[in-house]
Design a protein that fits this description.
ten-stranded mixed beta sheet; single chain; two-stranded antiparallel sheet; 36 helices; 800 residues; 12 strands; alpha/beta
C-alpha cells in the first residue's frame, strides 16, 4: 500500500503545474486583449475625428498593424454611419495606395478562424465590387458557415453584377444547412435576382433552380407561374416542396389551388386551401361550400376566411348572409366559426329585426367552442337590457353544453354567475402520476448497497489473507489507510478530468468570442437570417415576480419573437396579476393538439401586445406545461425558460447566433445560468451585479460557474453534451414534436419525469440517429440567464 504515496505526490505536482499554466495563460490572454482594445479605440477615435472634420485625418502616418486596425474600425463604422461621398473617395484612394490586397489574401488562407475573419472583414471594407473573383475563391474554400453567410449578406446588400453567380457557386460544395440559410437570405432580394433569373432560366442544376424558385415570390416575370408548376411535377422532392410553397404563398389563385390539389406530390394541400381563402378576393358561395363540405379542407377554409375577415371587416354582412342562406351542416358550421370572431358586432344588433338569426348564430358559435368572445362581452357590458337578452339566450346552452357551463363557471363575473345560479366549478380528478414500481425500488436499493459495500468488498479482496494475523485495531487502521489512499487517487483523477474540461472550455470560449466578434449588428439584423423563436415560460405560484419577468422577456432584442407564458394551475394570484397588468382578454386561440396535456382552461391575449400569449391550465407539472406551449407555439425554435429567470437583452440573440456557424442542423442549444442572488434588479433587468451575502448562495454560484462554463463547454467541444438546462435552452420545434414532446404521464409515453431537460436531449439524440440525420447540440457561453437559487438548506434539498 505504501507504493501509492509517490504516485499521489507526482499527481499533485502535475496538478499544481497545470494550475500555474492556466493562470499564466489567463493573464497573457487578458493582457493581449486589453492591448488590442486600446489599438482599436485609437483608430475608432481617428475615424470619428475624420467624420466630424469632413476629410480623413492623420492616415498617412499609419503603418503595418495600424492599417489593419483602421480598416477593421472603418468596416464597423460603415455599418452604423452614413459616410459622406468625399470621405469615401479619400478612403478608396488611400486603400489603393497601401497595396494591402496580398496581405488580405494571406489572411483569408489562414488555418485560424480569427485571422480568416479579419481577412473577410478587410475584404468587405475594401469593397467586394472590385474583387469578385477573390470573393468567389474565398466562398469556395472557406469552412466556416458563419463567414460564408457574412459574405453572402454583403453581396445581397450591394449591387454586384456577379453576386448571385458567386453565391450559387458557393452552394455547390456546401452542406444542406448552408443552402437553406442562403435561400432564406435571397428570398426577398427581388431587385438583384430579377435580371439574373432571366439569364439563367435554362440551367438545370439544382442550386440554380432553387434560387429561381425563391425569385418567383416576386411574380415579376410572366413565366414564373408555369415554372413553379413544372418544378412541382419534377422528380426532385425538395424542389417540388419548395415550389409548392412559393406557388401557394405568392399566387394562391384558383388555378394554382386546383393544380396543387390534383398533384399527388404536394403534401401541403391544406395550406394551399388556407392561402386561397385568405386572399383579398372572396371565392364564390358554391365554391366555398364545396371546400367546406370536404372534411380535409374544412379547418383550412375557416382559418383562411377568419384571417381575411380580420383584415377586411366589411365582409361581415356578406358572410352573415351566406350563413343564413346555408343549407348544408358543414357549410353552416364553417361560416359560424368564421363569424365567431365578430360576436360583438352581432350582439349589439340583438334587439334588431333579425333577432332570431343572430340568436341562432350565437348558439352555433358557442356549440362550436367559441365562447370566449361572448363571455368577454358579458363581463365588460354595461347595458342591462342587452345583458338580460343575452342571459336568456345562454340559459338553455348552459344546460345542454357541459363545456360551456364550465367556461361560464370559471370566467364569468360573480354577479352574472349568481343570476344564472351557477355554482363553483367542479373539481377535476387530479392527473394520475406514474409511481415507482417494485422493480424500480429494488434497483435503487441495489445501487445504494453496491456503493456502500464496494469499499469493504475491495478491502477484503486485497487484505483478506492478512486479516487473521491482525488485531481489530490494526484491521481498522488498514481499512482507513486503504480508503484514504483510494479517495486521494479518486480526487486527483476527477480533478484531472475537470482540468481537461477546463482546457477544452477555454479553447471553446476563445473560439466563441472570436466568432461573436467577427460579426456586427447589421449582419445579425439581416432579413431572413435569424429563425423565429417562441419562448415558453411555465409559471407556478410566481405572483411576486411574474410581471417583471414577462417584461424582461418582452424587452429581448430579437427580430422574430413570441412569448408564451403558461400558468400551470398556480394557487396564488399569478394569473390575476398577468390579466390585470397586461389587460388580457380571453380569446379563442387554436392549439395544434399534437401533444396530449392536462386541460387548458383559457387562453388570453392583448391586441396591443401581439407577441404575448398567456395560457391558463390545470396543474400537470413543468413538462406538461411546456407541452401546452409547444401546441401553441408558431416559432421555428422553442426556447424553454423558468418563469422566475431574467434574460439579458442580448441573451437570445447570442444563443441563436450559435446556429449560424455549423453545417449541421442545431437541434438543441443551451445558455449560461448565473445566480441572481445579491444583484440589484429593476423592471425585469439587472442593474448591478454583486455576490450574495448568503454563504449557501455563494457556494451554489461557484458550482454553477464550474458546471456551466467549464463542464458543458468542455463537453460541447467534444460533441458529447447530453443535457440542456430547463432554465434556458432552445430546441428545434418540429423535432421535439416528432418525439412526443416532453415526457409526462398524460403524454404518449405515459411516464412522468423530474429531469425533463436531460431526458428530452437523450430522446432527441436517439431519434435523429435512427433517422440518420446529421445534427449538433451546442452551448453558448455568453448567453446569460439569471436565476434565483435557494438560500436555505431545506429549500435547496426540495429543489435538488
Amino acid at each position: 500500500m505504501s507504493g501509492f504515496s509517490p504516485l499521489v505526490v507526482a499527481l499533485m505536482g502535475i496538478l499544481i503545474l497545470l494550475d500555474g499554466a492556466i493562470l499564466l495563460a489567463t493573464f497573457l490572454t487578458k493582457f493581449l486583449s486589453r492591448r488590442a482594445w486600446r489599438r482599436r479605440a485609437k483608430q475608432e477615435s481617428l475615424i470619428r475625428r475624420s467624420l466630424v472634420s469632413g476629410h480623413l485625418e492623420d492616415t498617412g502616418e499609419l503603418t503595418g498593424r495600424e492599417r489593419f486596425d483602421f480598416l477593421n474600425a472603418w468596416a464597423k463604422t460603415e455599418q452604423s454611419v452614413i459616410v459622406p461621398e468625399a470621405i469615401n473617395g479619400e478612403f478608396t484612394g488611400l486603400v489603393g495606395s497601401w497595396d494591402i490586397l496580398p496581405r488580405v489574401e494571406a489572411l483569408l488562407k489562414s488555418r485560424f478562424f480569427k485571422k480568416r475573419a479579419r481577412g473577410v472583414g478587410l475584404l468587405l471594407a475594401i469593397g467586394p465590387i472590385s474583387e469578385p473573383e477573390l470573393l468567389r475563391k474565398t466562398l469556395g474554400r472557406e469552412k466556416s458557415m458563419l463567414l460564408k453567410l457574412r459574405i453572402v449578406q454583403n453581396l445581397c446588400e450591394r449591387d454586384i453584377k456577379q453576386g448571385v453567380d458567386i453565391i450559387r457557386d458557393s452552394m455547390s460544395d456546401s452542406g444542406e444547412n448552408y443552402r437553406l440559410w442562403v435561400l432564406r437570405m435571397l428570398r426577398d432580394r427581388h431587385m438583384i435576382l430579377d435580371d439574373w433569373v432571366e439569364a439563367n432560366r435554362g440551367r438545370e442544376d439544382r442550386d440554380t433552380r432553387r434560387i429561381i424558385i425563391q425569385a418567383a415570390r416576386s411574380k415579376m416575370r410572366p413565366w414564373y407561374h408555369s415554372y413553379l408548376q413544372k418544378m412541382v411535377l419534377e422528380g426532385d422532392e425538395v424542389l417540388a416542396e419548395e415550389a409548392a410553397e412559393v406557388l401557394m404563398e405568392s399566387y394562391g389563385d384558383r388555378e394554382s389551388l386546383e393544380f396543387l390539389i390534383r398533384s399527388s406530390r404536394s403534401r401541403q394541400k391544406g395550406k394551399a386551401v388556407f392561402l386561397y381563402f385568405r386572399n383579398s378576393l372572396l371565392p364564390g358561395k358554391e365554391e366555398t361550400a364545396g371546400y367546406l363540405g370536404r372534411e380535409e379542407f374544412h379547418g383550412s377554409v375557416v382559418a383562411g376566411l377568419t384571417e381575411r375577415l380580420g383584415e377586411t371587416p366589411r365582409l361581415v354582412p356578406l358572410l352573415y348572409q351566406r350563413y343564413r342562406e346555408s343549407t348544408g351542416e358543414s357549410e353552416k358550421r364553417g361560416y359560424a366559426a368564421v363569424l365567431a370572431s365578430r360576436i360583438s358586432y352581432f350582439i349589439l344588433r340583438l334587439n334588431g329585426e333579425d333577432r332570431k338569426g343572430i340568436g341562432e348564430l350565437l348558439r352555433d358559435a358557442v356549440r362550436l367552442g367559441f365562447s370566449a368572445p361572448l363571455i368577454n362581452f358579458l363581463n365588460d357590458n354595461k347595458n342591462l337590457t342587452l345583458e338580460k337578452e343575452l342571459l336568456a339566450l345562454i340559459v338553455p346552452l348552459i344546460g345542454e353544453d357541459g363545456s360551456f357551463r364550465r367556461q361560464c363557471q370559471l370566467f364569468l363575473k360573480e354577479d352574472l354567475k349568481d343570476q344564472l345560479r351557477l355554482g363553483p366549478p367542479e373539481e377535476e380528478a387530479k392527473q394520475a402520476r406514474m409511481q415507482l414500481t417494485r422493480k424500480d425500488r429494488m434497483i435503487m436499493v441495489f445501487m445504494i448497497l453496491f456503493v456502500v459495500t464496494l469499499p469493504l468488498a475491495y478491502f477484503f479482496y486485497t487484505q483478506g489473507a492478512y486479516l487473521p494475523f491482525m488485531t481489530g485495531e490494526e484491521g481498522v487502521v488498514a481499512f482507513l489507510l486503504m480508503y484514504h489512499q483510494a479517495f486521494a487517487v479518486y480526487t486527483i483523477a476527477i480533478n484531472l478530468v475537470y482540468l481537461f474540461l477546463l482546457v477544452q472550455s477555454w479553447i471553446a470560449i476563445r473560439g466563441q468570442q472570436d466568432e461573436w466578434g467577427s460579426v456586427d449588428e447589421g449582419f445579425l439584423n439581416a432579413r431572413g437570417l435569424m429563425p423565429s423563436v417562441s419562448i415558453l415560460a411555465p409559471a407556478y405560484n410566481e405572483e411576486t415576480t411574474i410581471v417583471q419577468n414577462v417584461y424582461s422577456l418582452l424587452s429581448l432584442n430579437y427580430p422574430n419573437l413570441e412569448v408564451i407564458v403558461i400558468n400551470d394551475g398556480s394557487r396564488d394570484r399569478t394569473m390575476e396579476r398577468l390579466i390585470e397588468h397586461f389587460d388580457l382578454k380571453l380569446v379563442d386561440y387554436s392549439l395544434s393538439g399534437q401533444l396530449r396535456t392536462a386541460p387548458v382552461l383559457g387562453i388570453y391575449k392583448n391586441d396591443t401586445i401581439p407577441n404575448l400569449l398567456v395560457i391558463n391550465k390545470r396543474n400537470g407539472g413543468k413538462a406538461d406545461a411546456l407541452n401546452v406551449g409547444l401546441n401553441a407555439s408558431r416559432g421555428e425554435y422553442v426556447c424553454s425558460i423558468d418563469a422566475d429567470s431574467l434574460l439579458e437583452p442580448e441573451a437570445l440573440t447570442r444563443l441563436m447566433f450559435r446556429i449560424l456557424n455549423h453545417p449541421e442542423k442545431t437541434v438543441a442549444i443551451g445558455g449560461n445560468i448565473i445566480p441572481v442572488n445579491g444583484c440589484v434588479t429593476r423592471n425585469g433587468s439587472i442593474k448591478e451585479i454583486h455576490l450574495s451575502d448568503n454563504r449557501l448562495a455563494r457556494y451554489q454560484t461557484i458550482e454553477y460557474l464550474r458546471s456551466f462554463i467549464t463542464g458543458r463547454l468542455g463537453w460541447t467541444r467534444m460533441n458529447g453534451l447530453m443535457i440542456i438546462s430547463g432554465a434556458f435552452g432552445a430546441f428545434y420545434r418540429q423535432d421535439v414534436v416528432d418525439i412526443g414532446g416532453y415526457m409526462t404521464g398524460a403524454g404518449s409515453l405515459a411516464k412522468d419525469t423530474v429531469g425533463e431537460d436531460m431526458e428530452l436531449v437523450v430522446r432527441l439524440i436517439r431519434h435523429l440517429n435512427e433517422k440518420g440525420e446529421k445534427f449538433r447540440i451546442d452551448y453558448a457561453h455568453n448567453a446569460n440567464c439569471w436565476t434565483e437559487v435557494p438560500e436555505k438548506m431545506g429549500d435547496l434539498l426540495k429543489q435538488r
